[in-house]
Amino acid sequence: MRIRILGQYIHVSIAALLLVEALICFLAPFAAARLWLGAAAAGSTLAEMTPAALAFSAAMLLGLTATGLYGFQQRARSIGIVARIAAAAALGAIALALTVYLFPSLEFGRGVLGVSMAIAVPGCILVRMLALHVFSSDVFRRRVLVYGAGRRAQSVTQLRRRTDRRGFVVAGFLPAGEAETLVPAEQIIHSDRSLYEEVIRHGVSEVVVAIDDRRRGFPTVDLLNCRLRGIRVIELVGFLERETGKVRVDMLNPSWLIFSDGFRTDAVRAAVERGFDLIVASGVVLLSLPLMLLAWLAIKLEDGITAPTIYAQSRVGLQGRLFPLFKFRSMSVDAERKGEAQWATPRDPRVTRVGRLLRRTRLDELPQLFNVLRGDMGFVGPRPERPEFVDVLSERIPYYRERHWVRPGITGWAQICYPYGGSERDAREKLQYDLYYVKHRSLLFDCLILVGTAEVVLWGKGAR
Q1: Which of 181, 325, 389, 391 is most buried, judging by how many CB atoms fall within 10 Å of its CB?
Q2: How many degrees, rounded to 5, is the angle at CA 169 between CA 166 and CA 173?
């Protein structure tokens, strides 16, 4: 089951894990003080350790988030979870060291910190191993009845990823008079009872309306009875959006976009977002200057002192306006000799040796920070695409131009949920995540995406 907090859908199991692990990490320094200092010595310091314990817990949670352990698409199993928690502990230690440097009053000793880590890390691993078994049980999932068994209903059966089916179990598909049933026969409910009666009979907590033609026998009375009984009724597009974190463009119609919640914007929100972009971009520029200098030097050493290091490429920005996007050059100087835009491909031969390293670590995108400072881009948003591709994709993919109603970004929801896109099919898939972001964007969502980007960088997801 998913709950909505500040406009964002969060699975109950993820929220529960966060609370339990936060408690473990908060209590770990107190337990460590008693073990390391002894009960007598620790008794006088326990009251003073609350700020340090809060800092330790926050640093660990930041590390766990950055390694994707609270992510919407988290699919790691036992070994992967242990590796990510170990990486999270390392990141947490770095964040804590920086915090203690800035606020010396939080110091609680290296010995206590080491024992705290020795308690918190196994504790988080144990909780995660238990969660793998407990939360996979159907007891913690909503029972869903799908009204329809045709083309639209078939999309529910196509949700094969474990993360997409984490929150629900299908009680069955009730045909709505479609000409053809396209769902597995064993999942179809054959009955002369009404929709409402089948909902009660199967103990359903949610009805997904997925009929192909609403003009043919729409069960208004049954659905109204479900709502009055407290059973949730949701349209298929909204259901898929909530469970997968993307908007299915093949099932969209203009009325859904017009009447759906979200897509909010106003002057105050725009000013807050711009201030956020300026603060974050300025801070990252200062921190990454040494990396930029190293990247500049590496490109010069490989291609010669006269070779260009910064590549400016025309991209489509807010409301379709063009702007020059800055990147460290990762391809050969004559990568597009014929002047025609080309999709990037796996193991692209045009990429230089230094360029491959820059792409894998995402360092080639650091100059885009200056695009953010100029106002061409935000820090978070849909990735800007080349105008040659936009013209083609807009003709072939419905609602493609709608992604340009927000400022493009260095990172985005599509970047942390889907690998690098290098084809029309990839562009269609990433558009669905972009539309989800456009609909639900907020300062909180932007912060979650920024932290989630660390997972992409650490694990090299989607780099080409």
Answers
A1: 325
A2: 140
| Residue matched to tokens 């100087």 | 333
> Which helix H or strand E contains 378, and what residues bound it?
strand 378-380
Q: Torsion-angle region of residue 79: left (phi > 0), alpha (psi -120 to 50) or beta?
A: alpha
Give the integer Cα–Cα distance in Å for 122 and 84.
Answer: 12
Token pair belonging to 23: 């408690």
Alpha helices in 69-176 (DSSP H): 78-102, 110-134, 151-157
CA end-to-end span of the chain, whole Å?
A: 35
User: Which residues, in sequence order, are CB contacts of 173 under 8 Å at separation 6+?
Assistant: 145, 146, 148, 149, 153, 156, 181, 183, 187, 188, 189
- pLDDT, residue 421, reads 64
Tracing tokens 């936060």 back to the chain, one arrives at 22
- 120 pLDDT exceeds 90? yes
User: What is the identity of the amino acid at 7?
Assistant: G
Query: Is residue 78 a contact partner of residue 102, using CB atoms and an 8 Å limit?
Result: no
> Nearest Cα to 256, choosing from 236, 284, 272, 286?
236
Give me the phi and psi of 170, to 5 degrees please.
-85, 120
Q: Write out pLDDT tens, residues 300-345.
A: 898 888 888 998 999 999 999 999 999 998 887 766 665 566 666 6
Q: Evaluate whether 332 touches 350 at the Cβ level (below 8 Å).
A: yes
- Token pair, residue 168, equals 């629900």
Per cent of the chain over pLDDT 70 is 86
CA distance 291 to 285: 10
Q: Half-sphere exposure (CA, 13 Å, Cβ side) for 237?
A: 18
Secondary structure letter of residue 205 according to DSSP: S
pLDDT tens, 107-117? 766 678 889 99
Q: How far is CA 327 from the centre of its chain?
A: 24
Answer yes or no: is pLDDT of 25 > 70: yes
Q: Cα 356 to the chain's mean position, in Å?
A: 25
The pTM (predicted TM-score) of the whole model is 0.78
Alpha-carbon gap, residue 430 to 426, rounded angstroms:
6
- What three-state secondary structure class fits 280? helix
